[in-house]
């Protein structure tokens, strides 16, 4: 069920040296008040206005801690995300007003860590506390600069330039979904993984210097956390997306005094913000009942935040400002913008999805149970004997059954062997009692029993039939689900974040066929800016090529059998360096066939080389191992010698017993000791590296042997087929010969024989 929710807007004022007395915060009422003197000369504000009051969901004065900001603004958005609701928190304000401080802060120092690191602590803390909930965390970090997107999660990016980062492209799929292609989605299993990803992203953020603030970024950064949560017993999982957005400075270009390239960049940045403001204005008009198109698609920024603004998302905004007298005009603009954002209404829905993996597990369990039941009804057992504790269990059950006062008591066992055991126990007891003469023999009624037995047998047969059908049905369901997952997996490999629509649909929307017809989304009014910083996006082209290749590879599967045979022959030709002349006898002797195949196998040489290299490496490892052992002895002897020398010199009175006083001889020995230790360490590291290489090469060799075996099987299979074919063809020819020799004698039977052989030939061809 969806519910309507407004965007809550908060105001945070950063500490400054000279706060203006024209500005006042009222924490209890959640208001900010600007008192501007009525002086047209100074009038940066409409001189009619003396007092301007803005309302917020909460206002935070300069002494507010980072913890309080997280608790009051972000915590419940994160909690909702864990429950399956999308969430967005974005910071808006002029450069230097504290956006980055509020969003990121200093993640290394807990007290000054901002909303993003605190969100991560909170999620993992929650997961630790609620052991009944499984939370999967995936992280993306996107930077938007001059209208283009860049992936911030590339580790080891040695380049210092933003344009060296992988470019992110918004794409439209055939079914109208928008995805971000090229943006990495990284799984973070632990809090440490997640913080490390944040760290990598921070390193990659481009920091350009402006006269206003050295460390302020002039791009927009969006930290995206995707949460998949489920209980171990539930089929349903929730999937939600948390966007934590640090916008670029909201100031107008003239104020910052940046020039040249920076000015051009600033224009692009403000253009993005302009589109954001435009979208917010349109949303406001929509909220007032106007039927209006919302231009989300005019910029990457608004496209990414589509869900967050007017969509399925719990959204919060932190307006940041400074109360320095010079900053007041921008601060008033910030508050005005905040007021417009506060009017926007979002529709928030819980994103729930049935998890096919969980259902498969459940169905598998159910199937096992059904199979056991079926086996029992059919008188089979999955085991051939009972363990002693199971026999004890049966005894206990029989005792309970016999001692029960309840006339409706029944003896329940779930296994044919256990049932036999219970009967055996009962028989044993009955015999003992009979011997003692205290129990009357049970009077059986054969006629009744027979009728009962027939009825029971019929019921059992019906039950067997029902269970069999159920198993087939379950197997089908498992197959369907597995297929679905297979498709989903294929799409996940594309590593694209689905922007709009329930994220839970992510696996389904990106099936191979739809992703092959992705259309890049152009942002019309930013084409010029994009051109300036164009980096060719080769990804779609590469993908198309792979896709084509894939279809070529898989084509023979869907072609006629004849084509299959041709393709197989082609494949076999490809694996051999030269054709193999093999006789029928050799073909039927697998060992000599394998030997001949190996000689002509194209990859055999590479395999031999690998073997040789592996052998060499193993020998080097062995020698190095011996050397290291020897080195250990050298080191321990040197150590003994140092101690010995020390004792002798103290006894001779050459040095005092103060360990800090060292003789020249001792010094030499210590230097030698250290040198030998270094050699030891280096050799040890080398050996470790060698061992890893040996392991890797052994696996490679194993795989290459397995591949050769598979290729050999294919080859011999084909050769045997060909042999049978040529034998059948020879037989057809000889029929022809006979036919012409016999000259019409017994023609009918010969013609029949001819067609029969021809049919065999065709069948063989089709195999
Ligand atoms: P922005 O991202 O809006 O350009 P920053 O977050 O980088 O601004 O803040 C500019 C400077 O002011 C930074 O050195 C930051 O540490 C400091 N700062 C901002 N807000 C606060 C605050 N609330 N408390 C302490 N220092 C702050
Ligand atoms: Mg900043």
Automatic annotation (TrEMBL):
<keyword id="KW-0067">ATP-binding</keyword>
<feature type="domain" description="Kinesin motor">
    <location>
        <begin position="6"/>
        <end position="344"/>
    </location>
</feature>
<dbReference type="GO" id="GO:0005524">
    <property type="term" value="F:ATP binding"/>
</dbReference>
<dbReference type="GO" id="GO:0007018">
    <property type="term" value="P:microtubule-based movement"/>
</dbReference>
<dbReference type="GO" id="GO:0008017">
    <property type="term" value="F:microtubule binding"/>
</dbReference>
<dbReference type="InterPro" id="IPR027640">
    <property type="entry name" value="Kinesin-like_fam"/>
</dbReference>
<feature type="binding site">
    <location>
        <begin position="93"/>
        <end position="100"/>
    </location>
    <ligand>
        <name>ATP</name>
    </ligand>
</feature>
<keyword id="KW-0505">Motor protein</keyword>
<dbReference type="Pfam" id="PF00225">
    <property type="entry name" value="Kinesin"/>
</dbReference>
<keyword id="KW-0547">Nucleotide-binding</keyword>
<comment type="similarity">
    <text>Belongs to the TRAFAC class myosin-kinesin ATPase superfamily. Kinesin family.</text>
</comment>
<keyword id="KW-0175">Coiled coil</keyword>
<dbReference type="Pfam" id="PF23735">
    <property type="entry name" value="KIF9"/>
</dbReference>
<dbReference type="InterPro" id="IPR056524">
    <property type="entry name" value="KIF6/9_C"/>
</dbReference>
<dbReference type="GO" id="GO:0003777">
    <property type="term" value="F:microtubule motor activity"/>
</dbReference>
<protein>
    <recommendedName>
        <fullName>Kinesin motor domain-containing protein</fullName>
    </recommendedName>
</protein>
<dbReference type="InterPro" id="IPR001752">
    <property type="entry name" value="Kinesin_motor_dom"/>
</dbReference>
<feature type="coiled-coil region">
    <location>
        <begin position="628"/>
        <end position="707"/>
    </location>
</feature>
């Amino acid at each position: 069920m969806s519910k309507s929710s407004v965007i809550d807007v908060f105001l945070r004022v950063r500490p400054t040296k000279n706060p203006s007395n024209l500005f006042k915060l009222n924490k209890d009422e959640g208001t900010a008040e600007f008192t501007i003197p009525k002086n047209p000369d100074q009038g940066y504000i409409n001189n009619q206005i003396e007092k301007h009051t803005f309302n917020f969901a909460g206002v935070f004065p300069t002494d507010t801690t980072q913890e309080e900001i997280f608790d009051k603004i972000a915590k419940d958005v994160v909690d909702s995300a864990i429950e399956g609701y999308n969430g967005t928190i974005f910071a808006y304000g002029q450069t230097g007003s504290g956006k980055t401080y509020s969003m990121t802060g200093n993640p290394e120092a807990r007290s000054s860590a901002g909303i993003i690191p605190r969100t991560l602590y909170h999620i993992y803390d929650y997961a630790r506390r609620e052991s009944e909930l499984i939370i999967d965390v995936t992280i993306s970090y996107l930077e938007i600069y001059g209208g283009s997107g860049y992936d911030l999660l590339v580790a080891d990016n040695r380049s210092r330039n933003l344009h060296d980062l992988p470019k992110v492209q918004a794409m439209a799929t055939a079914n109208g979904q928008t995805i971000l292609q090229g943006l990495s989605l990284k799984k973070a299993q632990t809090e440490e993984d997640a913080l490390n990803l944040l760290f990598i992203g921070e390193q990659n953020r481009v920091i350009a210097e402006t006269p206003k603030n050295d460390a302020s970024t002039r791009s927009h950064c969006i930290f995206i956390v995707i949460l998949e949560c489920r209980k171990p017993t539930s089929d349903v999982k929730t999937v939600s997306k948390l966007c934590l957005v640090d916008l670029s400075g909201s100031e107008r270009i003239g104020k910052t005094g940046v020039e040249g390239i920076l000015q051009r960049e600033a224009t692009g940045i403000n253009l993005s913000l302009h589109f954001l403001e435009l979208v917010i204005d349109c949303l406001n008009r929509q909220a007032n009942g106007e039927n209006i198109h919302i231009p989300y698609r005019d910029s990457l920024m608004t496209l990414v935040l589509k869900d967050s603004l007017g969509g399925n998302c719990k959204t919060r905004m932190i307006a940041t400002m400074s109360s320095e007298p010079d900053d007041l005009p921008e601060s008033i603009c910030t508050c005005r913008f905040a007021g417009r954002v506060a009017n926007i209404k979002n529709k928030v829905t819980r994103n729930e999805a049935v998890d096919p993996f969980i259902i498969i597990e459940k169905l598998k369990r159910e199937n096992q149970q059904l199979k056991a039941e079926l086996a029992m009804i059919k008188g089979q057992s999955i085991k051939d004997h009972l363990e002693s504790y199971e026999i004890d269990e049966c005894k206990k059950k029989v005792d309970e059954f016999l001692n029960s006062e309840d006339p409706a008591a029944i003896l329940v066992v779930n296994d044919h062997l256990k049932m036999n055991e219970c009967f055996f126990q009962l028989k044993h007891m009955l015999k003992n009692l009979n011997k003692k003469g205290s129990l009357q023999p049970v009077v059986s009624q054969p006629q009744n029993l027979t009728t009962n037995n027939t009825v029971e047998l019929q019921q059992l047969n019906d039950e067997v039939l029902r269970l069999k059908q159920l198993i087939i049905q379950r197997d089908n369901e498992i197959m369907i689900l597995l297929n679905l997952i297979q498709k989903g997996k294929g799409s996940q490999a594309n590593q694209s974040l689905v922007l709009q629509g329930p994220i839970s649909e992510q696996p389904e929307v990106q099936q191979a066929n739809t992703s092959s017809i992705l259309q890049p989304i152009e942002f019309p009014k930013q084409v010029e800016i994009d051109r300036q910083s164009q980096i060719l996006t080769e990804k779609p082209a590469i993908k198309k090529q792979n896709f084509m290749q894939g279809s070529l590879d898989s084509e023979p599967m869907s072609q006629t059998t004849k084509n299959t045979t041709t393709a197989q022959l082609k494949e076999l030709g490809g694996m051999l360096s030269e054709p193999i002349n093999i006789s029928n006898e050799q073909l039927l002797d697998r060992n000599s066939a394998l030997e001949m195949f190996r000689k002509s196998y194209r990859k055999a040489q590479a395999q031999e080389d690998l073997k040789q290299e592996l052998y060499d490496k193993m020998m080097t490892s062995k020698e190095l191992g011996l050397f290291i052992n020897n080195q250990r002895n050298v080191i321990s002897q040197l150590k003994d010698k140092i101690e010995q020398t020390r004792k002798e010199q103290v006894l001779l009175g050459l040095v005092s017993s103060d360990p800090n006083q060292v003789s020249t001889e001792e010094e030499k020995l210590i230097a030698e000791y250290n040198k030998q230790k270094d050699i030891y360490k280096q050799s040890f590291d080398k050996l470790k590296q060698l061992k890893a290489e040996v392991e890797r090469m052994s696996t490679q060799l194993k795989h290459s042997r397995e591949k050769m075996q598979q290729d050999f099987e294919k080859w011999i299979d084909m050769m045997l087929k060909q042999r049978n074919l040529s034998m059948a063809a020879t037989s057809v020819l000889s029929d022809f010969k006979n036919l012409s020799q016999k000259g019409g004698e017994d023609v009918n039977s010969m013609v029949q024989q001819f067609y029969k052989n021809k049919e065999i030939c065709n069948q063989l061809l089709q195999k």
